[in-house]
């Protein structure tokens, strides 16, 4: 609501303004009604005010003087002057101060209402304009980030990207440079026991450490990638990029539970050539499985065979994930066969097991991007995959992985067929958390932005159960749990699950469990 301050040295005039103006209908509230400019300024210093309505002629401090000082405190303040004198000089001063209106006494109620409505619309417009400007300002860094990432991947040209960066006021001197690709290690495993909020905070802390260090060292320009890595285009300014990146690796390790691995491309002659260095950085980072983590991997470190094998592995994994999402079971089988052809080159049993863990880890990370939890889906503990060590042959491991991928694909396929499941899940969680409330369909439908008829139809279509029946079922399940406490009276249990009528509660309980609450509790005591 817009906040209004009334100022007039006449008590009667203040009371008339307060009582006979429909403030609530205008979506306004009076935060003060004072008799002089000094009191008004004190209030303006203490709290926000949107509209000042003041008499012009007042002792000690006139309304015009008050308005000038008030504007210095609150530049966006709207001012309406009220005067008992039809004096052109007063009106001229009011106009020069960009006042919203100049109203003569005795105040015409409708004139004041019309003026307040116009001021309200003006305030609404200015707030929306400010919000749009803030949204534009906040979106520029995101746009710059995305443009840089797309440029490095070759989907937009250098000139388009560089023009945007120049407009953003970001300095860059063209010349020799190289690209580093930074990845957090073991995100899927280390944060598995974290809540969603804890996980988000831990990851953002890791990124903050990386970005703060990059900004402090002024290495160059950077962005985040679509799969939560950080790309840095490093200017060659007399220092060694691999040494600087190793320093960053150690910095993150010393200040976080996370570690990072950096893939570093070779130096190129100009910024325009940076995408080729980015590709080398990607290839270097992809060899982490073979080279090791928590280190800097330069493009000239891995042998060509390892690079090619790793690239083949990444491409196969990508095809396998695409097949899993698209419910292409034959293609899942074929890509898994191709993957395990690489396993035959591994020299020892432990390497094979680690390869299988790698596939599961990558699958889990991929599913997280689809808001699917692999451990919940397959009922397996991803922190303790000892089942892999129970297998005696590569064929056994491959068969186990195939079975898990088929189950994941089946789940995703069913989820696609029923896109409204997520909405219904949210509604069900809301019901379970608010059993004490009314929970009538029309109230829940309004809360989620649907008509009652449509939400009732949707709920029945997805769950094969009427909404009211689901609410009753959940209430009865909770009531049965509450009745296990002998100290809790039956009517208290009924109240805690939203029933005021004990007869209705008993009838629903008997329909659900075959016994009225009293007999159910007696039966429970007899069994104990």
Q: Strands of the largest sheet, in order across it? A: 2-1-3-4-5
Estimate the mean pLDDT confidence. 81
User: Strand count, sense and closure of the main sheet?
Assistant: 5 strands, parallel
Question: What low-confidence regions span 5 or more consecutive residues with pLDDT below 50?
Answer: none
Name the shape in a single word: flat
Report the top-level CATH class of the largest domain: Alpha Beta
CATH fold node name of the largest domain: Alpha-Beta Plaits
Q: Would you count the extended β strands for me? A: 10
Number of helices: 23
The number of distinct structural domains comes to: 4
For this entry, give a set of tags.
single chain, 528 residues, alpha/beta, Rossmann fold, Alpha-Beta Plaits, 4 domains, five-stranded parallel beta sheet, five-stranded mixed beta sheet, 23 helices, 60% helix
Write the layout of secondary structure elements.
Layout: E1 2-7, H1 11-20, E2 28-34, H2 37-46, E3 51-55, H3 63-73, E4 78-83, H4 88-96, E5 101-104, H5 109-152, H6 158-167, E6 177-184, H7 187-190, H8 196-217, E7 220-224, E8 230-235, H9 241-255, E9 260-264, H10 274-286, H11 288-291, E10 296-298, H12 304-325, H13 329-343, H14 349-368, H15 374-378, H16 394-417, H17 421-433, H18 441-448, H19 452-463, H20 467-482, H21 490-496, H22 502-513, H23 517-527
Parallel strand pairs: 1-2, 1-3, 3-4, 4-5, 9-10
Antiparallel strand pairs: 6-8, 6-9, 7-8
């Amino acid at each position: 609501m817009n906040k209004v301050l009334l100022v007039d040295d006449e008590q009667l005039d203040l009371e008339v303004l307060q009582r006979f103006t429909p403030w609530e209908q205008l979506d306004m509230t009076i935060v003060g009604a004072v008799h002089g400019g000094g009191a008004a300024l004190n209030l303006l210093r203490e709290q926000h005010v949107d509209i000042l309505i003041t008499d012009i002629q007042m002792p000690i401090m006139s309304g015009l003087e008050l308005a000038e000082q008030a504007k210095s405190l609150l530049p966006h303040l709207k001012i309406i002057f009220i005067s008992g004198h039809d004096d052109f000089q007063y009106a001229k001063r009011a106009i020069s101060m960009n006042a919203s209106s100049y109203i003569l006494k005795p105040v015409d109620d409708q004139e004041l209402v019309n003026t307040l409505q116009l001021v309200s619309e003006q305030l609404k417009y200015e707030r929306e304009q400010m919000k749009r400007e803030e949204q534009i300002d906040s979106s520029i860094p995101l746009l710059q980030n995305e443009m840089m990432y797309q440029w490095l991947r070759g989907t937009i040209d250098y000139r388009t990207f560089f023009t945007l960066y120049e407009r953003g006021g970001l300095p860059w001197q063209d010349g020799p440079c190289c690209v580093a690709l930074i990845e957090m290690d073991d995100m899927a495993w280390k944060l598995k026991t974290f809540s969603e909020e804890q996980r988000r905070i831990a990851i953002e802390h890791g990124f903050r450490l990386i970005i703060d260090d990059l900004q402090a060292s002024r290495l160059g320009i950077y962005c985040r990638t679509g799969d939560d890595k950080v790309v840095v285009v490093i200017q060659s300014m007399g220092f060694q990029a691999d040494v600087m990146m190793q320093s960053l690796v150690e910095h993150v390790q010393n200040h976080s539970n996370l570690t990072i691995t950096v893939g570093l491309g070779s130096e190129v002659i100009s910024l325009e050539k940076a995408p080729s260095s980015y590709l080398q950085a990607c290839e270097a980072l992809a060899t982490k499985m073979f080279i090791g983590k928590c280190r800097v991997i330069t493009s000239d470190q891995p042998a060509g065979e390892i690079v090619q094998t790793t690239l083949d592995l990444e491409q196969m994994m990508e095809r396998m994930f695409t097949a899993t999402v698209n419910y292409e079971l034959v293609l899942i089988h074929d890509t898994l066969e191709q993957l395990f052809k690489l396993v035959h080159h591994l020299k020892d049993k432990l390497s094979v097991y680690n390869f299988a863990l790698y596939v599961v880890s990558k699958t889990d990370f991929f599913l997280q991007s689809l808001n699917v939890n692999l451990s919940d889906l397959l009922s397996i503990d991803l922190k303790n995959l000892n089942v892999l060590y129970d297998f005696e042959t590569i064929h056994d491991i491959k068969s186990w992985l195939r079975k898990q991928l088929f189950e994941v694909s089946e789940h995703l396929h069913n989820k696609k067929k029923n896109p409204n499941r997520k909405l219904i899940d949210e509604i069900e969680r809301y019901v379970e958390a608010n059993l004490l409330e009314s929970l009538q369909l029309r109230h829940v439908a309004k809360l989620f932005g649907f008509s009652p008829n449509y939400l009732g139809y949707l709920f029945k279509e997805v769950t094969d159960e009427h909404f009211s029946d689901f609410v009753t079922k959940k209430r009865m399940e909770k009531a049965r749990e509450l009745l296990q406490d002998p100290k809790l009276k039956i009517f208290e249990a009924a109240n805690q699950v939203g029933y005021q009528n004990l007869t209705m509660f008993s009838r629903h309980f008997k329909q659900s469990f075959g016994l009225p609450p009293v007999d159910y509790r007696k039966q429970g005591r007899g069994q104990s």
